[in-house]
Amino acid sequence: MTIAMERVLAWKLMPRLMMLVMTIMYIQVLHWFMELSPEAMTSQATALTATVTGAMSSSFMFWLGHEK
Length: 68
Fold this sequence. Notes:
The protein is mostly helical and 68 residues long. Helix content is 81%, strand content 0%.
C-alpha cells in the first residue's frame, strides 16, 4: 500500500461513518415510535424499537472497545 492510502485507513473513516448512519437511523426509529398513537403501539412496534436499541447499544460497545 502507498503511504497516502495507509494514512486514509488510519483515520478509520468507514467505522465512523457507519456509526454516524446507525445513530441517525436510531434517532429516526425513536421519533417514529414516540409519534405512534397508543393504539398503534403494538407488541411488534415495541419489539422493533427494542431490537434497534439493542443493536445500537452493542455496536456502540463494540466500536468503543476497538478505539485506542
